[in-house]
Amino acid sequence: MATPARLAVEPGLGEVLVTAEDLQRRVAELGEQISRDYEARPPRPLLLVGVLKGAVFFLSDLMRFIDIPVEVDFMAVASYGSATDSSGVVRILKDLDASIEDRDVLIVEDIVDSGLTLQYLLRNLGSRNPRTLEVCALLTKPDRRKVDLPTRYVGFEIPDRFVVGYGLDHAERHRNLPFVAALES
Ligand code: IMP
Ligand code: MG
Question: Does ligand 1 come within 6 angstroms of the Cβ of 140?
Answer without folding.
Answer: no
